[in-house]
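Lecture 7 notes: from sequence to structure.
We start with the chain below.
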Amino acid sequence: MGFTEQKMTEDDISKKDANIKTIASILTDILKKSSLVLIILALWQILPTKGIIKPSIMPPFLQVFEVWMELIFTGDLMPDIFISMRRVLSGFSLGLLFGIPVGIAVGYFKTVSDFFSPLIYICRQIPALALFPVFILFFGIGETSKAVIVFWVSVWPVLINTISGVRYFDLLLIKTARSMGADSKRILSSVILPGIVPSMMTGIRLGAGSAIISLVAAEMIGSKAGLGFEVINAQYNFQIAKMYAVILTIAVLGVIVNHILVLIEKKLTFWQQTI
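Predicted structure tokens for the same chain:
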């Protein structure tokens, strides 16, 4: 019994040591990846505190963080977060529904490419905010105009990356599929579509980031609710700490959305080797 108990104790100790090493490795990795962010936050706290930057222009980080936590725990920001994310989701979903199938068609079929390409490359050069007055004239100042501007901004990264993924797909794989008797539809559905997922997901991630940025700008111009409205309203009322707190909220939401899309990409491209 003594020998068995001693062996179990040694096993427990080795397991604990392994767990401690794993946790230490994870914490070290987190510190390495977030070191620049921590330096910026430290400067944000130090510079206003020492008077190098006027606190009235940029309050210390801890003051902003305190206001931010208050906004979160009181729930004051939740309606605005919900409104903004609903707008992003509606416009971004339209961008995906249009951008992915049209991108595949333009990239794969030459006749479709010849028809759509000139219009695509002209329209994508027009800034979304320049078109915002046009969208308001056509769709009013309600939810539709904001969904349309999010659609306009998010559709181009999705569309262009999908087109590029199809056009620059590995020809050797296509030739191999053809030599095995696959027709064009089979090649498109079973070879090209799985292969363009990385390029397509890059476009989706870029589109999601652009969607959030454009919506916030649109809400600053013509809205009475949403995170963009809260930023400009706080600035008008000289609630500078609140303004920065809402900006931090927008940044965190962007990071969360991007992280979710990265996880989806990893699930869809489990076969792809990375550096």
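Points to note: The two ends are 50 Å apart (CA to CA). DSSP finds eleven helices and no strands in the chain.
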